[in-house]
Amino acid sequence: MSSATPSSATARLDRILADAKRDREMGYRDKALKMYPHVCGRCAREFSGKRLSELTVHHRDHNHDNNPQDGSNWELLCLFCHDNEHARYTDQQYFSEGSTSSPTIAKATHNPFAGLASLLKKD
Ligand SMILES: [Zn+2]
Ligand SMILES: [Zn+2]
Fold first, then answer.
1. How much distance in Å is there from the Cα of 104 to the middle of ligand 2?
2. How many whole angstroms from 118 Cα to the centroid of ligand 2?
3. Tens digits of residue pLDDT in 99-109
4. What is the pLDDT of residue 32?
């Protein structure tokens, strides 16, 4: 593995698509689609026909090896919400690592309220 821009949105989406492909090959996606309504768990959009391919299986604990047969670790998310979900999770991971944050991450998680906070601190 090289360390080429792992934090870019494109790389993240690529990974989600790769995961989706694996889930389909392993049969998890079929099971999850039979188990749950074809609705995104975040934005509540409905998917049918060709568009069903935009609905992907998300692993709630982000562990793709954790596949209980009752589907309790699965959630159906559209590509957009799935991407968002992983972005949040990635941010959390970086934050919990603490001191070793890279400048790329700092830029990606730009906080629009940072300026406001410093204004409020001023007397
Ligand atoms: Zn969605
Ligand atoms: Zn996921």
1. 23
2. 36
3. 444 445 444 55
4. 97
Residues spanned by the domain of 67: 12-97
Question: CB within 8 A of 101, min separation 6: which ones?
Answer: 94, 95
Ligand in closest contact with the CA of 41:
1
Q: State the distance from the centre of ligand 1 to the C-alpha of 14, rounded, in angstroms.
A: 17
Confidence of residue 81 (pLDDT cuts 50, 70, 90): very high
Q: How many domains does the chain have?
A: 1
pTM here is 0.67
Whole-number Å distance, alpha carbon 113 to ligand 1 midpoint, is 26
Residue 105 lies in a domain: no
| Alpha helix stretches (DSSP H) within 1-123 | 9-26, 28-35, 79-97, 103-108, 114-121
Please, what is the Cα angle at 109 between 91 and 58, to 5 degrees? 35
